[in-house]
Amino acid sequence: MSDDHEQIYGADRARRLEELLREVARRIAELDRRGALLQGAPELLKLLGDVRSELFHYEVRITYDTPEIAESRRLVDEARRSEVSFLDDDAEED
Q1: What value does the mean pLDDT take over residues 35-42?
Q2: Cα separation, 25 vs 18, whole angstroms
């Protein structure tokens, strides 16, 4: 896998994260039904740690710009700056 691809949080990995979140919810509900929420604390801490780690990766990678996106963003920003200065110059001539 290339470095660029590893920086992108793909749809498959997102679905796995959603399922992991659902599993935590199911486990909490099950422990609650049995009246064993606090007894399940060690297990829940491990599950929540796994979820926390994966959520962190999701948050970081979902906002990562690939080189292509970063270049597109740079071009758009540059065009916007040029447009503003062009409009400002016209206003001064009037």
Answers
A1: 97
A2: 11
